Amino acid sequence: MTKKMEYRDWRWQVLWWHHFFLLWSTIEAQTRYSIPEELKLGSVVRNLPKDLGLSLSDIFDRKLRVASEAGEQYFSVDAGKGELVVNDRIDREALCGQSTSCVLPLQIVIENPLHLYRLDVEIKDINDNSPIFHAKELFIKISESAAVGTRFALENAEDLDVGSNSVKTDSLTRNDCFAKKLKR
Q: I need a labelling partner for 77 at 20 to 30 A (CA). Which of 3, 41, 101, 173 fits?
């Protein structure tokens, strides 16, 4: 009975290693591209055959396609040239919110034989949002007997852009009676 169990264990190990190496050969190295948000439809990101080491005929003959893990098809492949092109409007703030990093993972699938390429497209922020204040007007009651230098808290401007495109400072026009200092 133990010889029979040892034989089965050995067969499972061989089968497991066979499947591991079969899958290993179908998955290629990861590639990363970087583009600004809000590119026009049809804008070229990169040439896939050149970057993945394929011929242009491979794209048509082997049915190359792009699968997005985000659910939305932001990219497509121009079968005539093999270029990865923008297929839909990409709004970085809608995709990633206030996160400083915004990456769209893609799978490039080629058939006969099956090969999978992992591709990450980093979406860079552009300065496309104006800073806003939640309140249009702010009324502060100040007593006549308020001491010089008395401080009043005011809200800061909010900006949906991140990094170097976000609000760094805001200011209030100074006159003889008032000045605003900003602490961050």
A: 101
Express each pLDDT in 49-83 by its tens digit: 888 888 888 888 888 888 887 678 899 998 788 89
The three state secondary structure string of 150-171 is: CCCCCCCCECCCCHHHCCCCCC
> Considering the domain 26-124 in this protein, what is its CATH number?
2.60.40.60
Write down the pLDDT at residue 166.
66
* pTM more than 0.70: no
Give every CB contact of residue 48 below 8 A, 6+ residues apart in sequence. 54, 59, 64, 77, 82, 83, 84, 108
CB atoms under 10 Å from CB of 110, counted, come to: 21
Q: pLDDT tens for residues 118-169?
A: 889 998 877 766 777 777 777 788 888 888 888 877 777 776 677 666 666 6
Residues pairing with 46 in the sheet: 84
Residues of the chain with CATH 2.60.40.60: 26-124
Q: Distance between CA 41 and CA 123 in Å, rounded?
A: 15
Sheet containing 115-124: which strands, arranged edge to edge? 31-36, 115-124, 103-110, 65-68
Nearest of 131, 135, 49 to residue 84 by alpha carbon: 49
